[in-house]
Amino acid sequence: MDGARAVLAIMPDLSPHQIVHLVNLCNGRPLAVLSPSDEEVDRVIALELGIDDVLSWRQSRRELVARLRALLRRAPPAEAAAGSAWRIDWRRGVLTGPTGLTIRLTAQEMQLLRVLQSADGEPVPQSALSEALSASSGADRRSAATLISRFRRKLGDADSPLIGTAYGQGYYLAAKLHQEGDGL
Question: How many angstroms separate the Cα of 146 from the Cα of each of 84, 130, 150?
């Protein structure tokens, strides 16, 4: 679902558990379900659990297109849907994730993000990260891998990763950081 502005799920029978799972997967993007059921209770349950619209197979093509267009009007811009909703306030040392989780950054974490951001999406070798981190804090050369591992756990960013790994090449920013406060 990366890059999607909205999600249309076509499933014959959705249990409430499946609906909640779909809503969580959409990460804030509008979600419509195309369902064969005309039962009001099924539509109400889906809407109460977070589905934005329930479409029936019996609706006219014109109405389906109009409802999907309305859904897209409510959708975030494509860039935001692609998981780029990470915001950083350099002055305060605070990172806010796509889910609204706010994390206070250590000096090393801020330095790590500065180095990765300056690489403009290109992988930064672990040795270069270790060197940059040790120059600013006196940490040892293996500190980059350890710091990234701890930072990823702290972020809990499995659904919308901030730091990616290019195996054999290094680490990179997997999402754009929207800057608040003083930048680099």
Answer: 24, 10, 6
Q: How do beta strands 102-104 and 94-96 pair?
A: antiparallel
Give phi and psi for 170, each to the nearest 5.
145, -155
Task: Determine the Cα–Cα distance for residues 49 and 31; give it in Å rounded to an integer.
Answer: 11
Summarize pLDDT for 4-24 with one digit per residue, the tens.
Answer: 667 777 766 767 767 777 776
pTM of the model: 0.52
Q: Label residue 69 exposed, middle or buried (CB < 10 Å: 0-12, 13-18, 19+).
A: exposed
Tell me: domain 83-180, CATH 1.20.120.10, correct? no
CB contact set of 63 (below 8 Å; sequence gap of 6+): none
Q: Which residues share a beta bridge with 163? A: 173
Q: Is the CATH number of domain 7-80 3.40.50.2300?
A: yes
pLDDT at position 103 is 87
The pLDDT tens digits for 81-91 are: 444 578 899 99
